[in-house]
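Sequence in, structure out.
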Amino acid sequence: ILAALLLHDLKKGGEPWADYDAAHGPPAAKWLGEPWNERSESFDRVRGMVADHMAQWNSPKATPPADLANQIVSYADYIGSQDSIYVTVPESGR
């Protein structure tokens, strides 16, 4: 989950880098897999979460979260993109 959260927006700026690309999940997952010939179940799982992190907003096809891990990545991305959600960090007892 942490790897997917760190890597999910690698291609958000499009290819070549320009403007926002709504369909950036699948290209990022593909790009992550290109340098390696060997695959593992966990690596493929991370790539799947990266590809599908846009969930119902994914383009060209909606990919609603199929399990808890995908929900966490998708919802964290959504919440992080909202301008109206703030977290106030309490002051330390100085």
